[in-house]
Amino acid sequence: MKQIFVLFVVFFFILNVSAQKTLSLKDATLGSSSYLKPAMPEQLKWKDARHYVMIKNNNLFQYNAQAKDSVELFSLADLNMALKEKQIKEQDAFPRFSFINESQIWFQVDKHLVILNLENKSIVTYFTYAEDADLLDFCTGNSMLAYTIKNNLYITGTKGIQQITSDVDLHIINGAAVHRNEFGIEKGTFWSPSGNQLAFYHMDETMVGDYPLVDYMAREAKLVNVKYPMAGMTSHKVTLGIYNLATKQTVYMKTGGPDDHYLTNICWSPDGKSIFIQELNREQNHMKLNRYDASTGELIKTVFEEQDKRYVEPIHPILFSKNDPDKFYYQSRRDGWNHVYLYNTSGNQISQVTRGEWEVTRLLGFDTEEKFMYFEATMQSPIERNLYRINIHSGKTDKLSEEAGTHSGILSPGQQYLLDSWTSTDVPGQVDLVSTKDGHKQILYKAQNTLKDFELGENTVFTLKAADGITDLYCRMIKPNNFDASKKYPVIVYVYGGPHDQLVNKTWKNSARWWQYYMASKGYISFTLDNRGSENRGKAFEDIIHRQLGVVETDDQMKGIDYLKSLPYVDVNRIGVHGWSYGGFMTLNLKLKHPDIFKVAVAGGPVVDWSMYEVMYGERYMDTPEENPDGYKNANMLNYADKLQGKLLIIHGVQDQTVVMQQSIQFLKKCIDLDKQVDFFVYPTHEHNVRGNDRLHLMEKISNYFLDNL
Amino acid sequence: MKQIFVLFVVFFFILNVSAQKTLSLKDATLGSSSYLKPAMPEQLKWKDARHYVMIKNNNLFQYNAQAKDSVELFSLADLNMALKEKQIKEQDAFPRFSFINESQIWFQVDKHLVILNLENKSIVTYFTYAEDADLLDFCTGNSMLAYTIKNNLYITGTKGIQQITSDVDLHIINGAAVHRNEFGIEKGTFWSPSGNQLAFYHMDETMVGDYPLVDYMAREAKLVNVKYPMAGMTSHKVTLGIYNLATKQTVYMKTGGPDDHYLTNICWSPDGKSIFIQELNREQNHMKLNRYDASTGELIKTVFEEQDKRYVEPIHPILFSKNDPDKFYYQSRRDGWNHVYLYNTSGNQISQVTRGEWEVTRLLGFDTEEKFMYFEATMQSPIERNLYRINIHSGKTDKLSEEAGTHSGILSPGQQYLLDSWTSTDVPGQVDLVSTKDGHKQILYKAQNTLKDFELGENTVFTLKAADGITDLYCRMIKPNNFDASKKYPVIVYVYGGPHDQLVNKTWKNSARWWQYYMASKGYISFTLDNRGSENRGKAFEDIIHRQLGVVETDDQMKGIDYLKSLPYVDVNRIGVHGWSYGGFMTLNLKLKHPDIFKVAVAGGPVVDWSMYEVMYGERYMDTPEENPDGYKNANMLNYADKLQGKLLIIHGVQDQTVVMQQSIQFLKKCIDLDKQVDFFVYPTHEHNVRGNDRLHLMEKISNYFLDNL
Asked: Are the beta carbons of A219 and B230 separated by less than 8 Å?
């Protein structure tokens, strides 16, 4: 009996141990976005005021928000039967679709645009578009599709194709996003509300010098010229055309001004007669909201202007009231935080809708009367996103999401419900149905914890004071597996540090990169700090870096180092740093300005000298090299190469068009001139990030560099 | 007294130890070609039958070969006085000069061509040439200078400039060496004996695709297109023009044939009426010695032809007899070794002058009657060069150099003497005056042993059998400093292995790279073996690699490894390999075909896939990819990347136009695809070799890689 008991204990112990798996590098890099990614409902969206839908096992299911019952609305088999009838290729998976109304959806399959009636299960209409069509933009108002082929713009529908532009020079580009996707620009075509007109960006890059990239994978290396205007250099010229489908004429808005200003955040008036452009000067310190007559292109009015001594950064189009075509909502950081303002088209501010030392991060919608506005914001905490509604008149605000975490809402038609998809430190994913009336919550879905069988280092979030001694900075630390406070551990600082990004969030695992868990399993502490300059902390926090990139960010990061040095279990002689892009720049700043601290560094796709960076992002933060010579000099890592000590690996994608490889190459040359040893690796076919399966190779390269040298 | 004695001993011991310095990496890389290079006489040459000259302390001294007395012939002060008189910039050092006759020399200073009379110490004549003149070729017959500016050819003298070509397209190049300097081609202009005509190469590269190199050091990276025809691709077209200075007309030789044949080894007939071209077909297996009428360009005669089942490689122009303008000397490897043949212009072979299983490596000249021919050859040993004279009629051969080593001779006018400059294993440099009559030797100069104070590992040369079990291969081994046969040492194999090079020679230190001594001081054995395929061992030895590059060479290198493994003091688990160019290719062959043997490898500027190598060299050894698909496949290192284990560092010059960087880049991509870790470094401004001060950085990088990983 005793023996049997012992055996049982041993067996139990083995089971228990085998349950605690170690995260492999493949799990950490590829698994996190595929086989270990927590599954969430597919294509969750509202069909009507009371029903939401999602895809389950490739079939479309409808759920009743009140009655909580569900029904299979449309199967993949149904879909394929409908497609087959029109001789369109059958599908293996339910395509991504959108509702036109509660009975019709549209989707794209096999170069066909299809409108399908869910009720009678038949195709309402469909048409083919060109094999090489790109940048598709479907208008449900007129059932027509705008698209580009190479640099020209077309529209098509059931009645054939209209070619809108015919530019021969490939460096004149129509219908694509412009200004390198800065200023919130994500697309290049804008249908008017009724679909009778199509506004589109027209970008002339012919005056920008050719920048040579090389495709080394050809039998004979092949030149691929791109346009990459660098800070202070001649930039491209953008105009906005409006094509009238009835007259088949294009009118260009008479935006005037210097050629290199920025046309941002296009918005049609509700009647489709005028169009609004947030026009920003190249210096990026003066924005005009201009209204143009869509039929003549004439400037009707500068509705209002906004200026700032550092920079204005419009990133949200204005949003017209559904009730009053004379009113619109406008987002601005003019009071120091991103808030919503209500304006009329005369340019008078009616009210500031939201207010406070927190940021509106997304608008979700309004109720029909526009008494309430729904939004996501950082009101609760800068590292959370919660759902709120505000009474536009009284200012009374209700928090609609319950648990601390990062919530994302979808408002129902009729505004009775919010679908709240959220994660938190220990919640890999959950969907709640929230009643906007009383905040009553019903859990619809809980994602499986895909890491539950893995042994992971302890992950904590806390704050430290910035170098100003006042500001709280959020930090995340992951301790090694089987942490023993009496031992000494090496640390790898993972850094980004630039604007428009925040690495520490209350999401699942506090947004840790799983690579950090991997390194924790190898005995490394992972540390990350969001310094001043990073996002979601207000304007002053973010724009303090203006004209002096790398300075404040580095000072703040060093406060993290001070903290690490204060910990008895940190081996202060074994601190490393890694970052990519702005994080690569920061890695160089830290390594070169504090060579005594950082023994090993890996900088990926780093900016070395901002004068080799592009105009739009670069000049926002640094002005031009002519305007800010000292700033450029101080931020130029070539001027710190002489401080290099220890191990530094630089990695670059050969095809990088964001931070061009010459940045790294010039740094290597400087090191060679100074007889400083530096390491280098390239990913021949990758652009600014190493994506796909090759990411495993990349992370293995980075891991090995720390494992071998730190 | 006793105490004093002890002190003395200690002092002596310290002195002795400090005398044994260790070679620094700087000494080994930069010192070997500068501050530690053994000094040899400057500009040693014959003035006349009895007097030779050299520069000492910037003054020109004359020595009497018989009487052994010396006199300062011309001082730098004399020279500068003469220059000053003509308002030519005074010089800090005696310029490089050539004798026109025993009283006149010519030289170039400060864009002036100057003829100076040594006797009356005055300038005979001088003229200026253009600031951007390149490829200067001075003709003493007419005192005119041929030169190029960009792609065009000019001549000038005291009577002004004549522009010979006026091609606007920069890819039509006149007066430059062609065919990528293969086939012994070193220049592109050829003055007729009297100087009344100038033959020149005219190369049209317009049909060759542009190959993109990128200058990353510009503010904005700059494209630099070059012409790099790859194996099997369309190649350039070369013709030979002859410009007549009297008529000012150029006639092109009617060479006909396919455009991509090779026009090699140009030679004028002694009367200047015809010109001889060794024309080789693109397949490089059929050479025709063609004679053209210089005034009409018509083919007079194909004097003779030479074919070979592997390849014919003409690298020496024919050399006309001084006594009989109908006879010429011709060098060929047709009997398996490079020998000299006497022909008449009808194409009849009069005699084979030299014969035997050794190679004539250089012709030095003939006596006036052409009874004797003087030459350098490998007759004594393939790793020595000795001086010989042969009785052309009887074949009787005399060895004129005494000590085993590598000798280089300068025959005096009148052929009474040879100046013999030589080195040997323990002789850093020596000049002897040798009587051609009786071989009597007089030592003129002994270079200082610049390494005498350094502690160096033992350096031995020996032979091993090749993989065929028959052929002797020469090897060099350097043992670590303070070698102890009871210990185990790691080994670094340094390899080249390709044709036209030999690494083991009886020169000073047996041609060891001093870096090998440096690594020996760090405890590494250095080993080098000249496999089959390397030069100076006869045709069969060298051309066995034809159509199968990397195969035999690797098999032979592995015989070296077998030997190393047999040594009790070799640590067989710590063997590394390093090589550059063909040696980079060999490094990859060894590392990838024998991953269990080579723990660490550093391949510099490696050929990875011969289909990415250029036409002239590539097709000689491999034919075209179409003709030899299996050969290309077997020699393609991309097909062995899956075998990669351990550490491999690849280094490439970004500006490499010999082995283009895409070779390395494609190998990286293959490794990434296979998830194999590989290391990489680039030298941004360097071409095929890293030269100048940056070489120290390079060798430090390579050294560290072995020190860290082997």
From this structure: yes
Q: Find the distance separating the first CA and the last CA of chain B, reported in whole Å.
A: 52
Last residue of a domain, one of B299, B317, B335: B317
d(CA B242, CA B252): 6
pLDDT digits (tens, 9 = 90+) for B431-446: 999 999 888 999 999 9
pLDDT above 90 for A619: yes
Phi, psi of B444 (to 5 degrees): -95, -30
To 10 degrees, what angle do helices A582-593 and A551-566 make?
A: 60
Is A293 catalytic? The answer is: no
With bands split at pLDDT 50, 70 and 90, how would you rate the model's confidence at A68? Answer: confident
Scanning every residue of chain B, which has its alpha carbon at the shortest distance from the alpha carbon of A686?
B669
HEC assignment per residue over B651-682 = EEECCCCCCCCHHHHHHHHHHHHCCCCCEEEE
Q: ipTM more than 0.90?
A: yes
CATH number, residue B201:
2.140.10.30
Q: Of A139, A162, A174, whose CA–CA distance to A247 is shortest?
A: A162
The model's confidence at residue A19, banded by pLDDT at 50, 70 and 90, is low
- In percent, the amount of chain B with pLDDT more than 70 equals 97
Residue A486 sits in a domain of what CATH number?
Answer: 3.40.50.1820
Q: Which residue, among A702, A48, A675, has the nearest Cα to A415 in the 3D structure? A: A48
Residue A146 lies in a domain: no
- Residue A475 CA: distances (Å) to CA of A142, A407, A557, A563: 50, 20, 10, 11
Query: What's the number of domains chain B is made of?
Result: 2
Q: Who's near A342: CB < 8 A, 6+ residues apart?
A: A321, A327, A328, A329, A330, A349, A350, A351, A352, A353, A392
- The predicted-structure confidence for B411-427, as pLDDT tens digits, reads as follows 999 999 999 999 999 99
* Structural domain boundaries, residue B284: 166-317
Q: A685 and B669: CB-CB below 8 Å?
A: yes
Nearest CA of chain A to the CA of B624: how many Å? 14
B286 in a domain, yes or no?
yes
Predicted confidence at residue B67, as pLDDT, reads: 78
Chain A contact for B668 (CB, 8 A cutoff):
yes
Beta bridge partners of B434: B418, B441
Query: In terms of DSSP H, where are the helices of B66-209?
Result: 76-85
Please report, to the nearest 10 degrees, the dihedral formed by the alpha carbons of residues A534, A506, A604, A219 taken in order. -120
Query: What is the DSSP annotation of A511-555?
Result: G--HHHHHHHHTT-EEEEE--BTBSSS-HHHHHTTTT-TTHHHHH
The encoded tokens of residue A264 equal 């941002």
pLDDT of residue A9: 43
B192 part of the active site: no
Tens-digit pLDDT profile for residues B7-64: 444 444 444 445 589 999 999 999 999 999 999 999 999 999 999 999 999 999 999 9
Q: Inform me whether the pLDDT recorded for B337 exceeds 90.
A: yes
Contact B677 A700 (CB under 8 A): yes
* Count of residues in chain A: 710
User: CB B680 to CB A681 under 8 A?
Assistant: yes
Neighboring chain A residues of B233 at a CB cutoff of 8 Å: 220
- B chain contacts of residue A612, beta-carbon cutoff 8 Å: 219-220
Q: Which residues contact A369 (CB under 8 A, 6 or more apart)?
A: A323
E strands present in A11-69: 42-46, 51-56, 59-64
| Residue A480: pLDDT over 70 | yes
Q: How far apart are CA B256 and CA B240, in angstroms?
A: 11
Q: Do B106 and B98 form a contact (C-beta atoms < 8 A)?
A: yes
Q: Cα(B218)–Cα(A667) distance, rounded to whole angstroms? A: 13
Would residue B656 show up in a list of annotated catalytic residues for this protein? yes
Please check whether residue B199 lies inside any domain of the structure. yes
Has residue B486 been placed in a domain? yes
Nearest CA in chain A to B686: A669
Query: pLDDT tens digits for A75-91?
Result: 999 999 999 999 999 99
